[in-house]
């Protein structure tokens, strides 16, 4: 069985990265969504091991000491992190593991896991990004302005990503991301063992 890859998906708030990932999980084969661990309390309707892996602070900090996370951070008094064991298990099963994370965390993952594939989702222009944030109807003008300011900062680090995909028409974006991820399995580093086997067989026929 071929191993899967770790796929890190980032994007501007409002670009639709979460929607793209959900469509990949629900419509395409071979994907697994990374489940985070957290020290925050379980909310109504959440399930341990499905929504999050719920941990005590002591458990989480022990995992940090054991280098058991792909990445982790503390946000509003609670820890959040990606358990390495879960990711490695799914990759060994041949699944491409999707991890949605902001740009700084993504770059740290690339340092730790050079084979990780970084994909950045964007709108076609800034006006579309603002229109989508406004169209949600769930945030104040002040919050929208903060998200746009954050997007301006994030745009400075996008050169480190392997791929940039424009989410103009959702269906086209999902298909493009799916093709990119599938094509990663045909990299030389992924398929060199096939050539090595052929070389061995051909060497038997050389005079």
UniProtKB/TrEMBL annotation:
Residues 4-182 form the Guanylate kinase-like domain. The gene is gmk. The keyword Nucleotide-binding applies. ATP binds at residues 11-18. GO terms for molecular function: ATP binding; GMP kinase activity. Belongs to the guanylate kinase family. Pfam families: Guanylate_kin. InterPro entries: GK/Ca_channel_bsu, Guanylate_kin-like_dom, Guanylate_kinase, Guanylate_kinase_CS, P-loop_NTPase. Essential for recycling GMP and indirectly, cGMP. This is Guanylate kinase. It is an enzyme of class 2 (transferase). Keywords: ATP-binding, Cytoplasm, Kinase, Nucleotide-binding, Transferase. Signal peptide: none annotated. GO terms for cellular component: cytosol. It is found in: Cytoplasm. PANTHER family: GUANYLATE KINASE, GUANYLATE KINASE-RELATED. It catalyses: GMP + ATP = GDP + ADP. Its EC number is 2.7.4.8. CDD domains: GMPK.
